[in-house]
Write a structure and sequence with these properties.
This protein is α/β, with parallel strands linked by helices and 209 residues long. 44% of the residues lie in helices and 16% in strands. It is built from ten helices and eight strands. The protein is globular and about 40 Å long. The termini are far apart.
């Protein structure tokens, strides 16, 4: 069985998606293009609909050996046999989620400040997200953290971290110079007319020397 650490160590392009139209086909195309970890983040639909889609996406991701994460819902993650859970600062406490999902599943946490990041580094988690470094519609009302926070994370984080906030191919080179090596992408992929090509563009820039 692949360890939590090994699963995360292989990743660099993280798709975070709601349940969009034809979500299975959409996710499949992004996986073809190079996405190597997927999170289902759905806040609006009934639980049963979320669970059904989570089960479908888990099967799809498992067939490609890609970790599948459920946002904020350890109950749905367990029922769907997902590989892990991601929570925010205002969601269920990390210690409670870990108790629910056990030691074999991935657990990620959002951080938006130096204080939150330093606290996160003391917890039983496998990765953190850092940002959003600029304001984004996916996090309405939240100000951008700025690049200084990303640079700080690159110096102190003792576990993998993913940068969030408006990531697209034109920004990746600069973000890498600031300290990023892993990237969460939402809108650039969700809104893409050709998700496979969009994911390929992102992956090329991530892997570029």
């Amino acid at each position: 069985m692949v360890s939590r650490t090994e699963m995360i160590s292989r990743t660099s392009l993280y798709l975070c998606t709601p349940i969009v139209d034809n979500v299975s086909e959409f996710v499949d195309q992004t996986l073809e293009g190079g996405v190597d970890i997927v999170q289902l983040r759905e806040k609006q639909l009934p639980d049963q609909d979320i669970l059904e889609k989570a089960r479908t996406l888990q099967r799809l991701c498992r067939s490609r050996s890609v970790p599948f994460i459920v946002n904020d819902r350890p109950d749905i993650a367990l029922l769907a046999e997902a590989d892990g859970v991601h929570v925010g600062q205002d969601d269920i406490k990390v210690s409670d989620v870990r108790r629910l999902i056990g030691t074999g599943r991935i657990l990620g946490l959002s951080t938006h400040s130096r204080t939150e990041l330093m606290e996160a580094l003391t917890l039983d988690i496998d990765y953190v997200s850092v940002g959003p470094i600029e304001p984004t519609p996916t996090k309405p009302g939240r100000e951008g953290t700025g690049e200084d926070f990303l640079n700080f994370a690159s110096k102190v984080a003792r576990l993998p971290f993913f940068v969030t906030g408006g990531v697209d191919p034109t920004k990746i080179r600069h973000l890498k110079e600031v300290g990023a090596s892993r990237f969460v992408v939402v809108r650039y992929l969700v809104n893409a007319k050709d998700p496979k090509a969009a994911a390929q563009q992102l992956k090329v820039e991530i892997q570029r020397d």
